[in-house]
Amino acid sequence: MEIDAKILEKADILVEALPYIQRFNRKIIVIKYGGSAMTDENIKKKVIQDVVLLKLVGFKPIIVHGGGKEISRWVSKVGMEPHFVNGLRVTDDSTMEIAEMVLNKVNKELVSLVHTLGVKAVGISGKDGMLLNVSKKYAGGQDIGYVGEIQEVNPKVLYDLLEKDFLPIVCPIGYDDAFHSYNINADDAACAIASAVHAEKLAFLTDVEGVYRDPKDPGSLISELSIDQMEALVESGNVGGGMLPKLKNCVDAINNGVSRVHIMDGRIPHCILLEIFTNKGVGTAILKKGAERYYEQHK
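The structure assignment produced for this chain is given below.
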């Protein structure tokens, strides 16, 4: 009996995923979801499909999402002008009010998408369960309003949701000791949450494929590198300016107990599954010192 080659290929893909499913079963993975992948409805659906599949094969995913483009759209919609300092949104009272409304709207849309796939999700902000406590963040000494610097993460609400088999979806709003609301950079929130829950993996969905040895050479994408190698790459000056803050977050997360940080292009359909369940992956994995190098072992 002759079997279609495409069917056999599907079986090979499932077998290739097996060691990764075994290795990370029951482990927490934090996924920072943002960038252009949030504005394309087709890609958005595929991202949520990936996260739901991770949950159904035994992972414990937590989504931390942004929504900067949607906030800017609504700020403009009400006749205000978005302002940024060093890449951080200047957030006055009115902008903060819009940001919180928009992020909660995005949050519940993601919850609904998860529910359509038969998995229970709960959407929260950093204010729920006193998850994210912040202080005022400054940009080069300049006051930029209600932008928060995370001081403390209280992960109990996340542990409770995971224990009850819910998929937590977090929007990056926190508050200070006086209970004023603050907008938080979603990368910072994902990094702090991943550290607090001792996540095995932290995955950043971005608008770039990953880290390149030479930014001008698309063929120089690095599949896997250690913290030491990454720091050497940064010092070489070959890393683009927009990637530097993200790499700093990667270092912070790994220094605080996260085993692996993945940077991948969220615009690639099913990028999460391709990065986590295949030998080569589609992005860059950054490893803590002494971690197993899976791509080398499974070539």
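Interim note for the steering committee: The longest strand covers residues 142-153. The radius of gyration is 19 Å.
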